[in-house]
Amino acid sequence: MGWRVLCLCMFLGALFMLFNAQNAFVSCALTSQLQEEITRINGEGPYIGLVIPNSFELNPLLQNPAYTPSENIIDFAGRRFRFGSIGDKPVILVMTGLSVINAAITTQLLLSIFNIEGVVHYGIAGNANPSLNIGDVAIPQFWAHLTLWSWQRYGEGPSNTLPLEQNGDYTRNVGYLKFGDFMSNVSWGDSFDNLLNRIWYQPEEVFPVDGIPEQRQHALWVPVDYNYYQIATRLKVYNSHYKKIELF
User: Fold this and answer.
1) What is the reported pLDDT for 228?
2) What percent of the chain has pLDDT over 90?
3) Residue 64 near residue 74 (C-beta atoms within 8 A)
4) Is the peptide bond before 140 cis (omega within 30 degrees of 0)?
5) Helices H, strands E: what count in the chain?
6) Quick one: pLDDT at residue 129?
7) Candidate from 8-17, 59-68, 76-85, 131-140 with smallest mean pLDDT
8) Residues facing 162 on adjacent strands
9) CA 87, CA 65: separation in Å to the nearest integer?
10) Residue 180 per-residue DSSP state
11) Rounded to 5 degrees, what are φ and ψ at 84?
12) What was the pLDDT predicted at 205?
């Protein structure tokens, strides 16, 4: 009886996902009117795309006198693409929402639909570097997605092969986090164990646009665009008291 209920739940879940996917496809279809509008707007480009996580980070830019909005706004696929300029450079502002998935979807829409010459992401960030303080501006040279793991079952250790490791799907080359090393509120012994065991950090699978289809590459640290990084190292900003601050 139990497996029948499970199968029924799986079937209903798959049906629900298919229904949502079909609805998403229909709702995201480009109408001829919207295509004409996009073609017209793209003729005013190319643009720098500014990918912004949420309203806390978007609103200060919208209210900044350095940003000049245009009359063009396109609502598509649950996103609002705002057009304007910063200085003499045409820009498109779009809020992604939180999570890597939202950021990836929004950025891909931006690149696929509009005439984009570059993408800049900015926002609030956490910090593990004690030399940085609240309000400091940090410009990374590399970034990594550190929530892609292979979770090793309890009882296995660093010398045990990960599932699918021999196929090249997972690796032990990056390193791991052992939950037992971070136990708290314990008072016995000098070493502790945890049923969660350890997670192994994994590199991203990358399929370059100029590569061979379905032939993957792996990357843990992804460099930012070299030219944009060089420009960023020469930037100067002003704080709320209009005091000039050298970023580097």
Assistant:
1) 85
2) 29
3) no
4) no
5) 5, 14
6) 82
7) 8-17
8) none
9) 10
10) G
11) 180, -155
12) 87
Residue 222: phi, psi to the nearest 5? -105, 120
pTM: 0.71
Average pLDDT over the chain reads: 80
Q: Are 118 and 47 in contact (CB under 8 A)?
A: no
Q: What is residue 157's predicted lDDT score, i.e. its pLDDT? A: 92
DSSP the chain: -HHHHHHHHHHHHHHHHHHHHHHHHHHTPPPHHHHHHHHHHHTT--EEEEEE-SHHHHHHHHT-TTEEEEEEEEEETTEEEEEEEETTEEEEEEE--SSHHHHHHHHHHHHHHS-EEEEEE--------TT--TT-----SEE--TT-EEEEPTT--TTSPPTTGGGTS--SSS-EEEGGGG--S--S-S----TT-EEEE-PEEE--TTS-TT--EEESSEEPPHHHHHHHTT-EEE-TT--EEE--
CA dihedral in degrees (69, 42, 25, 71; nearest 10)? Answer: 20
Under DSSP, the state recorded for 161 is P
For residue 159, give both structure tokens. Answer: 């010398």
69-85 per-position pLDDT tens digit: 998 999 988 899 999 99
- Could you give the CA distance from residue 33 to residue 74 in angstroms, rounded to a whole number? 12
Give the burial class of 152: count Cβ atoms within 10 A of its Cβ; 0-12 exposed, 13-18 middle, 19 or more buried: buried
61 vs 75: CA distance, rounded Å: 19
pLDDT of residue 241: 45
pLDDT, one tens digit per residue, over 184-214 is 776 665 567 889 999 999 998 888 888 899 8
